[in-house]
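Input/output pair, single chain:
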Amino acid sequence: MTIWTDLSGTGFELSYAPVNGTPTRVLRAGDGEAVVMLHGTSGHLEAFVRNVPALAEHFALHALDMLGHGYTANPGGDLRIPRYVRHVLDYLDSRGIERAHFIGESLGGWVAGRLAADHPGRVGRLILVAPGGTVANPEVMDRIRTSTKAAVSSDDRNLTRRRLELLMHDAVNVSDELVDVRHAIYHRPEFVAGIDELLCLQKMENRSEDLLTPEQMARITAPTQIVWGAQNPFGDVPEAHRMQQSIPGAALEILPECGHWPQHEHADRFNKLALEFLGRERA
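Output:
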């Protein structure tokens, strides 16, 4: 299976949106209520290619390369959570979208959660997929920082593959094509130049200030579904339970034999769960 065959039966548009002066790569597909899809640290919109066909049958999808990620420009300076939130809000405004559902994975879940806490009127329903940002674990932060910088600083594709394999319970889910896509992104001169700014949340002083706190999570009024992998290498299952307890009325689904990319490793199950939660399950 390749990215192209995943998407080949779905009408979509891949373009660059001028978001407050920042060219932002976005994949749009489908019609209906807006669903914004946000990926993780050093990631890109291809994280959701196995979800686009099923969800685009019912929704207008907007999968973004977040600020300084993928092929979206990095305007300079440390990329902290308030800047990511502002970029997403500016994107919504540029499209005339007053309210959207959100699917946020890892860093994207952190951003979506903060957006929902601070701007409740902009969020319909919220799906947080192995979301980060509720703890500051030095070992995990170092693993993210060192593995990413190693892959970015070397032309060795095996280092890019290893970075992707960190996300998976089963390495078979890391295709050659996915490695090629990420390797090309990692070696864009603009990406290399901004890698320390992109990884700034792996520094304790930055992460601690930007953490998604229990008080912030308690302010989330959007119906929330948390999806977690039982073998998530970047966060143990108790972390997911604490998040569920902090967000009023949140539901939690823990997928067995699953790492940090539930939406990719268990796409069929994730898509069914997402459609049920968003209210568009097929009859």
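The two ends are 27 Å apart (CA to CA). Residues 3-278 form a domain with the Rossmann fold fold (CATH 3.40.50.1820).
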